[in-house]
Specification:
Blueprint lengths: L6 E7 L4 H11 L5 E8 L5 H8 L4 E3 L8 H12 L6 E4 L8 H7 L3 E5 L11 H7 L4 E8 L9 E8 L6 H25 L3 E4 L2 E4 L2 E2 L15
Parallel strand pairs: 1-2, 1-4, 2-3, 4-5
Antiparallel strand pairs: 5-6, 6-7, 8-9, 9-10
Helix pairs in contact: 1-6
Bound molecules: 5-O-phosphono-beta-D-ribofuranosylamine.
Length: about 220
Amino acid sequence: MNAPPLARLAVLISGRGRNLMALHAAVADGRIPATIVAVISNRADAGGLHFAAEAGLPCFVLPHVDYSDRAAFDRALAETLRPLQADIVVLAGFMRILTESFVREFEGRMLNIHPSLLPRHKGLHTHASALRDGDAEHGATVHFVTPQLDGGPCVIQGKFTIGAHDDAAKLAERVMDEVELKIYPQAVAWMARGELRFEQGSAAFRGRPLPEPLSLDDLEPGFR
Ligand code: GRF
C-alpha cells in the first residue's frame, strides 16, 4: 500500500526561528509526516532565514515595509502562498496582525503559537503581563487562526508554575524551552496526520470537538 502524501507546510516567521528549527527537526526525523515547502519572512533580517537557507528550505522574504498598507501586504502574502498549495500554514513567531480576508482564505489550515495561557494575555508583552497580574502559572498555546486576534480555538496548552525568581526574560526562555518547542511540533504532527481538524469553527481531535485544550500530558513520547 502506498503511504499517504506528505502534508505541505508553509512556515511564516519574523524572528529567531526557534520554532521553525523544532518543526524542521521533527519533519527531518519523520515525527511530522510533512515537507516544508516554504519559509516566509516579513523581515529580511529575521535570524530564522539563515537557518532556513542553510537547511536548504525555500525562502521568501516579503518585507512588510515595502507595502502601502496591511491589506496590500496580506494580498502579496496570499499570492505567495497560493501557488505553494500549503496544507498547513504555520505562524511561528510571525509578528503581523492579519486581515480578515487573508485569514478567511486560509482558515482551518492555519495555526499560531502564542506565548501565554490564552485567553489570558492576548497581544504583546505576555510575560510581563503575567508577572504584573501575579499569575501563578504561565505557558503557551497553539490555536487555529481566526479573524479574532489570538482568539481562535485552542488546540494545546502547556503550562508551568511561575517561580519566585522568574523575571520576564526568564519566563520567555522557559515558555520557549519547556513549552513551545514541544507543543508546536506535536500539534503540527497531529494536523499533518489528519488527527486535528478545524470543524464548524471548533478544534476537533480524533473526530471529536475538543472540550478543552490538550496539555503537556497528551504529548506523545517523541515530543516530550
Ligand atoms: C515565540 O515566543 C512565539 O510564541 C512568539 O514569538 C516567539 C517566536 O520565537 N509569537 P521564534 O522566532 O520561533 O524563535
